[in-house]
Amino acid sequence: MNQYANDQIVLRDEMVKMYQRQQNSKVFNAMLFENLLRPAPSPNSENGTIVTDSRIVSKLVLINKKWIFPVPSKNVFTKQIDSATAKLNEAVKFAEEKGTETYFVFNPSRTKALMHLYPAYLKTDAYSISKQYFLSKLDSSVNVVDIGNKFDTFKKAELEEMYLETDHHWNVRGAFTAYQEMIEQISDRSPIFSDEPMALDDIHISQLTDGAFEGSYNIQINEMINPKKADRTIIYEPRIPFSFSHFEVINKDGSQTIQSFDEFYGFKRGRSTYTYGAIFGGDRQKIVYENSQANNDLNVLLLKDSFMNPLTPYLAQHFNKLTVLDNRYYTEFSLRDVLTQEHYDMLIIAFHDDNLFSGNYAFEKKAE
């Protein structure tokens, strides 16, 4: 029976691959006739990629055999957003009552920022409407750091350079830009924190040249885009390596296997494969950075989603102690308990603007 089941799984996987290859063939280019009828567009480097090839493979959109996106939703999920914002308002109110200065950081999601790459029949303003609806439901006392406003100033071609091609995350250029804006905005507003972000002059910049990049979307469609050519992503390495007086990581399952920061984070040359998670530390229950060289004694708590993974060691340069939590990976979690058991001078809640009602908003949850 087990052998039969295994054989069926292998057969199913092969059939899925065959179907995906068929969807990726030339005849399935949704823009085939449009390309024949429309005049050739004049190239303009500021306008970004000219889309000439679009097809849907297993509910993912392949653009120019280079970019992969989800099929966008055209719905605005008001009830779910109402529930999430109510939880966020309550969490911020409790933190402020505990004397913890609080900021909600809204990072620009890839789907919304790169909507111009979708073919016309898939484009939607639902993501912009959803974001604005979300913001409208926040209490006026919530200190919002909207990184999307900064990204809105960039040209389409510049935005394309800030996100991965076959993965749902941004690359380190986009993340670093967000980090700079975050530090500048919090420093401008905070009565207890003042500092300058790191500059590009502090960074050694290179690019992935060897090895395969396994993007989260590309994996789902059996790497229809060659991972050895996809995402020759930018690499940022501080000229003065990050150093912490104490560093601790607790994995998603609660175990502790990471012994050092160098083991946890950063580009490791010579590997055959790379992923967003492998380069930037991946999702963990908890990360603790202690930095005795910071210019303050602030104890800061960060609640985050995976978009923040590349940023955490950069943020840690600015605080005496930074504790990073991802509540999705706790069976039980209480932000109230966290803020009660230890005093935090500052709380930063940072999610991307397509993450409007996920498990990240379960600030109080009990084991099922």
From TrEMBL:
According to the lineage, what is the superkingdom? Bacteria
Tell me the Pfam families matching this sequence: DHHW
Q: Which InterPro entries match?
A: DHHW
Output this protein's name.
AlgX/AlgJ SGNH hydrolase-like domain-containing protein
